[in-house]
């Protein structure tokens, strides 16, 4: 596993999540895959399920021209199946039409066991923002 940048206040599991997210934002799904278990389950926005980081990368390529995360906090708790890590912050980037955006809230929930992410759930406000951009109040 290759750490991109060690954060001194993060637990080992939160650092794995941080490094996974950094790789995902490049985007480098092959590097991101080094942080996940072979049987990872990634449930993305809208209930889309992927088994490799390339799934969310491909989906994001249709939704955004580019997107990054401002990772504000990492909350860590012991779960029944491993360590649970929440990454909370905001998305910023560019819509396909070239309009910049920021302040789009996100919450990502990870389950980490034996040094690998084996489950990830993703939520953000992009769908509501897209509706508002189309003149439809959410």
Automatic annotation (TrEMBL):
Checking SUPFAM superfamilies in the record gives: NTF2-like
Source domain of life is: Bacteria
Gene3D superfamilies annotated for this entry? 3.10.450.50
* Protein known as: Nuclear transport factor 2 family protein
Which classification does the entry list for the species?
A: Bacteria, Pseudomonadati, Pseudomonadota, Alphaproteobacteria, Hyphomicrobiales
């Amino acid at each position: 596993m290759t750490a991109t940048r060690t954060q001194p206040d993060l637990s080992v599991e939160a650092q794995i999540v941080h490094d996974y997210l950094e790789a995902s934002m490049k985007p480098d799904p092959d590097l991101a895959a080094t942080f996940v278990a072979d049987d990872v389950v990634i449930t993305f926005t809208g209930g889309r399920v992927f088994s490799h980081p390339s799934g969310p990368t491909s989906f994001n390529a249709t939704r955004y021209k580019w997107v990054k995360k401002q990772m504000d906090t990492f909350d860590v708790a012991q779960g029944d199946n491993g360590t649970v890590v929440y990454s909370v912050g905001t998305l910023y980037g560019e819509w396909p039409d070239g309009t910049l955006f920021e302040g789009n809230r996100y919450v990502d929930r990870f389950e980490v066991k034996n040094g690998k992410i084996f489950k990830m759930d993703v939520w953000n406000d992009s769908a509501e923002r897209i509706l508002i951009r189309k003149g439809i109040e959410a």
